[in-house]
Structure formats: C-alpha cells, structure tokens
Design a protein that fits this description.
This protein has helices spanning 3-16, 40-65, 68-72, 100-107, and strands at 75-85, 94-99, 116-129, 132-145, 148-163, 166-175. The protein is an alpha+beta fold. Strand 1 and strand 2 form a beta hairpin. The longest helix has 26 residues, at 40-65.
Length: 177
C-alpha cells in the first residue's frame, strides 16, 4: 500500500473506533447514617411507658363503657379518688376523698339510662421512675341527656404503682364540672 492510502486508511479506521462512553449520572447516594443503637435501658423504658399508657387507655375505655367491674380492676385496693365537685344539694364546690367503690356508686346510674357519658383521652404526659408513675391526661367529656349534652375538656392526674409486674392506679385527682 502506498503511504497516502495507508494514512487515509488509518485515519478512517481511527474515526470508527469509539471513545469510551462517560455517563454523567449522579453518584450513588451515601449510605444512610447509622443511628445510635437502642440500648436495653431505652427499650425497657419504652416498654414500661407503653404499659402505663395501655393501663390509662383501658381505664377510659372501661369508664365510658360503664363496666364497673373492669373499671375497679384498674385500681389497687385502698386507692383514693380525690375530686372537686358540687353535690346536687349544695351550692359550694368541695374537695372529697373517696374510695373507688364509693366513686363507682356515685357514677353507676344503672344500665337502663340513656344518659350520655363519654370520656375520650387526648394528650397524655407520662413520667415514671422505677415502680412509680405520674400521668396527666387531658381528655374530652360528653355528659347529659341526648337532647342536652354538655362537653368540656378536663385533666385527670393519676399516680400509678407497679407491683408484681402490673401497673395500677393508687390515687387519682380530678376536678368534676
């Protein structure tokens, strides 16, 4: 082959050789940051908090259902309910400290009543250390006859004690409307 033909052939063949392809795709995202491992203490704390909240949730469920036997089981024997209220035959509000059975006797209006009585748990604050817990629960109350229902929000303050693996209420304070 003559020199000009060889050069022409080399130039032609070089033009046919493709250059390596470079993709301008973004780099893969970095691996997600590893969060701190959950400690055994954190898991135990979350578990206890869940048990306390479950107890208070069940308390409101049984109170609203007027299931007085189930309601009473949320309290340790000898527990006290402290309430500010106005008795029907009095004009002044007063503070009463009553037993759970006496509280139930005041609340139990019978199964045949069509009285509306609902307490719905809202925001809750839970503080605990060891076997003692304090729970403040803001809740909504609906109470009255179907044609005349009063609604308000209130706060209940519970003290719970854990014994033999069970969280139960040892005292409760409420301000009845």
């Amino acid at each position: 082959m003559s020199r000009p033909v060889t050069i022409l052939l080399l130039v032609t063949l070089t033009g046919c050789v493709s250059a390596p392809v470079v993709h301008n795709s973004p780099a893969p995202p970095p691996p997600p940051e590893q969060s701190e491992p959950v400690s055994r203490d954190d898991m135990m704390e979350a578990r206890e908090r869940g048990l306390i909240l479950a107890e208070i949730t069940a308390y409101y469920r049984d109170l609203t259902a007027r299931d007085w036997d189930a309601f009473a089981r949320h309290f340790w024997r000898g527990a006290v309910v402290t309430m500010i209220w106005t008795p029907d035959d009095e004009s002044e509000r007063r503070v009463d400290f009553i037993s759970v059975p006496d509280f139930i006797a005041q609340m139990d209006l019978g199964d045949d009543t069509d009285l509306i009585f609902e307490q719905t748990m809202g925001t809750v604050e839970v503080h605990f250390d060891g076997n003692v817990a304090q729970v403040w629960s803001r809740h909504r109350v609906r109470f009255g006859d179907p044609g005349d229902v009063r609604e308000w929000t209130d706060v209940d303050a519970f003290t719970l004690m854990k014994h033999v693996g069970l969280w139960k209420i040892s005292s409760m304070a409420l301000a009845a409307q």
